[in-house]
């Protein structure tokens, strides 16, 4: 049964043809459906409602006022998603910029959106990285920046890269890492902190060895526990990031949350990423195995015995409502109490335009994800300083539903505020940058001419 006003556009997961698409309700599950004239029909579940979880249409209709980029870098030619740079039709400027400093990683995890490995590609030069930081700062101003890869700690000059990022006065400088070097090399976390690092975005899927081996190829939990401790001692904030795969670790989300809450104040939050079928994903593009946001909300409430509740979660005001949920809590003695105001991406500012709510979101994230020992309180106004001081006990719980080629929604892409900076200085929405077809072809990532807009490459083909 089709729902009202649920039409959008998507891509064929085989040939990347632009297709009309619509959301259809089938029992308790909403599917994104489309038909390619060459490769046939496709359908993927995007919202499986469990009793007590939000209604799809109500959640999707969360009010957002567009705040497009002030300095588009590419022209509109073929239209979204083929003109990324960003183009003038993009509906949201950058809140979080991702700068990939290597494509190499020693672990080669079975699940990896970047398809990183020890022999994959190379490292951009420091001058190229400086140009990437400069392009991001020019396009987006004082957004937050995440240094990513591959595994950034594979680079011996990572401290120099962090110092370079600091020169551009980004609101938050964070490293996306598997944490292994942080856990095994004495003094390394302190070395990164001295260079200017605020936060570690730390891959942490489970506390169970078998699940870790399935997702990461080996049991490395001891090293990750050591990394969390080392970051705390060094004064780095830690955000734990859990890749969630049905049949592997969805039964332990409550245990992981309760453990995280009992760590020191330097553990600032837990972020879930239900696995999507892009990059290296061994299960292929099977559709029924993916975990939708309302299912995760229900898992968290049930597995914590109601310590967190479905009613705590809110849609974002920055990215598209179907992309994420989050909640902010006050942490005390191993328990959480929902903080109804001051949340990082709450859509509770109906009189503010999206540029202002984005500013609030960026500032909250910069405060919340850094260690309380190193909050740069002086740079904020009186209200921000009050929240920063009070917020040393804040703990954020969030989830992001990435879009692969089966579930891509052009409306969501246009509202993306998380952008990867290419080596040519263009900004590409995260899901588009990592998108792969059923046979493993990339839309934007790892192409020799990936700096060139796809619309121009298609013309030349």
Question: Could you please describe the fold and organization of this structure?
Answer:
The chain is α/β, with parallel strands linked by helices. It has a domain at 96-400: TIM Barrel (Alpha-Beta Barrel), CATH 3.20.20.70. It is built from 14 helices and 15 strands. The protein has helices spanning 56-60, 126-140, 158-167, 180-184, 188-195, 209-216, 221-234, 253-261, 293-303, 354-369, 382-390, 410-414, 430-434, 454-460; strands at residues 2-11, 18-26, 29-36, 40-48, 96-100, 144-148, 173-177, 199-203, 237-244, 267-274, 324-332, 335-338, 394-400, 418-421, 427-429. Strands 12-11-13-10-9-8-7-6-5-14-15 form an 11-stranded mixed beta sheet. A 4-stranded antiparallel beta sheet has the order 1-2-3-4. A hairpin with a 6-residue loop joins strand 1 and strand 2 (18-26). Helix 5 (188-195) packs across helix 7 (221-234) and helix 8 crosses helix 9 (293-303). The longest helix has 16 residues, at 354-369. The two termini are 40 Å apart. The relative contact order is 0.16.
Task: Please specify the SSE layout and strand pairing.
Elements: E1 2-11, E2 18-26, E3 29-36, E4 40-48, H1 56-60, E5 96-100, H2 126-140, E6 144-148, H3 158-167, E7 173-177, H4 180-184, H5 188-195, E8 199-203, H6 209-216, H7 221-234, E9 237-244, H8 253-261, E10 267-274, H9 293-303, E11 324-332, E12 335-338, H10 354-369, H11 382-390, E13 394-400, H12 410-414, E14 418-421, E15 427-429, H13 430-434, H14 454-460
Parallel strand pairs: 5-6, 5-14, 6-7, 7-8, 8-9, 9-10, 10-13
Antiparallel strand pairs: 1-2, 2-3, 3-4, 11-12, 11-13, 14-15
């Amino acid at each position: 049964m089709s729902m009202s006003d649920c039409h959008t556009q998507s891509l064929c997961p085989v040939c990347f043809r632009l297709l009309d698409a619509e959301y259809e309700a089938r029992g308790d599950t909403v599917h994104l459906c489309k038909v390619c004239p060459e490769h046939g029909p496709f359908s993927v579940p995007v919202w499986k409602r469990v009793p007590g979880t939000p209604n799809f249409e109500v959640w999707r209709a969360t009010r957002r006022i567009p705040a497009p980029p002030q300095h588009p870098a590419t022209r509109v030619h073929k239209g979204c998603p083929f003109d990324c740079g960003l183009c003038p039709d993009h509906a949201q400027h950058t809140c979080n910029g991702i700068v990939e400093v290597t494509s190499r990683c020693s672990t080669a995890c079975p699940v990896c959106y970047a398809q990183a490995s020890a022999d994959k590609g190379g490292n951009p030069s420091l001058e190229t990285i400086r140009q990437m930081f400069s392009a991001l700062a020019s396009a987006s101003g004082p957004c937050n920046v995440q240094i990513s890869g591959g595994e950034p700690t594979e680079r011996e000059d990572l401290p120099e890269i962090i110092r370079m990022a600091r020169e551009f006065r980004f609101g938050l400088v964070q490293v996306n890492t598997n944490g292994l070097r942080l856990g095994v090399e004495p003094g390394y976390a302190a070395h990164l902190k001295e260079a200017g690092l605020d936060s570690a975005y730390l891959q942490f899927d489970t506390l169970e060895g078998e699940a870790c081996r399935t997702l990461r190829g080996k049991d490395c939990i001891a090293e990750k526990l050591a990394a969390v401790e080392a970051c705390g001692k060094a004064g780095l904030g830690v955000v734990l990031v859990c890749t969630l795969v049905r049949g592997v670790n969805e039964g332990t989300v409550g245990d992981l949350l309760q453990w995280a809450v009992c760590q020191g104040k330097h553990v600032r939050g837990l972020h879930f990423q239900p696995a999507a079928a892009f990059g290296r994903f061994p299960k292929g593009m099977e559709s029924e195995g993916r975990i939708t946001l309302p299912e995760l909300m229900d898992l968290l409430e049930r597995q914590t015995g109601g310590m967190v509740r479905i009613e705590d979660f809110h849609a974002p005001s920055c990215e598209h409502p179907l992309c994420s949920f989050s909640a902010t809590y006050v942490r005390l003695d191993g328990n959480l109490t929902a903080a109804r105001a001051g949340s990082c991406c709450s859509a509770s500012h109906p009189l503010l335009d999206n540029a202002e709510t984005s500013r609030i979101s960026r500032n909250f994230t910069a405060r919340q994800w850094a260690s309380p020992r190193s909050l740069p309180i002086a740079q904020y106004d009186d209200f921000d300083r009050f929240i920063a001081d009070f917020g040393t006990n804040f703990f954020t719980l969030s989830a992001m539903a990435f879009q692969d080629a089966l579930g891509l929604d052009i409306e969501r892409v246009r509202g993306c505020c998380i952008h990867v900076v290419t080596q040519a200085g263009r900004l590409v929405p995260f899901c588009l940058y990592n998108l792969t077809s059923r046979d493993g072809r990339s839309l934007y990532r790892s192409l020799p001419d990936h700096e060139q807009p796809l619309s121009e490459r298609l013309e030349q083909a």
